[in-house]
Amino acid sequence: MNYSPKKSLLYILLCIIFFVSCATTGKLSKIRLEMTKPEVQSSIGNPAVVRGSMRNKYNEVIEVWEYRLFKTDNDAFFDRPTYYWLYFCEDELVQWGEAGDWEKEADRVYDIRFKNTQELQP
């Protein structure tokens, strides 16, 4: 078969768009709060990076994972990712969203969530 360079380029572009579109934010519809880290990984894959880990004042392990995803195929084609952070407490997903979503409310959300957790313990 004899392919023209234009047809080959078009085929390559279509393949790129198809494979890149698999990395879009549609993956996020597969996750839910209270999933474990292995469940999240099996649903949406490995994180791009683990942002950090610490023990809070209640001695609970907090870990933040970052995913680099695309909202649209156009964003994927032009490599304009959106970063999503997933917050785990004791290996369980407790919060997720675009990176920086909770900057203004982080302390208030943190205090309420962990205060309520402590109130439930005997």
Plain-language structure description:
The chain is an alpha+beta fold and 122 residues long. The protein has one domain: Beta-lactamase Inhibitory Protein, Chain:B, domain 1, CATH 3.30.1450. It has 4 helices and 4 strands. The protein has a 4-stranded antiparallel β-sheet, with no helix packed on it. Strand 1 and strand 2 (61-69) form a beta hairpin. The radius of gyration is 19 Å and the shape is elongated. It starts with a helix and ends with a helix. The mean pLDDT is 78.
Note the overall shape. elongated
Helix content: 25-40%
Largest sheet: 4 strands, antiparallel
Euclidean distance between termini CA atoms: 75 Å
Unreliable runs, pLDDT <50, ≥5 residues?
none
> How would you classify the helix and strand content by structural class?
alpha+beta
Count helical runs: 4
**CATH topology-level fold name:** Beta-lactamase Inhibitory Protein, Chain:B, domain 1
Features:
122 residues, 4-stranded antiparallel β-sheet, alpha+beta, 4 helices
Could you give the topology of this structure?
Elements (H helix, E strand, L loop, with lengths): L4 H17 L15 H8 L4 E7 L5 E9 L3 H5 L4 E8 L2 E7 L7 H15 L2
Antiparallel strand pairs: 1-2, 2-3, 3-4
Give a summary of the structure in a few sentences.
37% of the residues lie in helices and 25% in strands. It is an alpha+beta fold and 122 residues long.
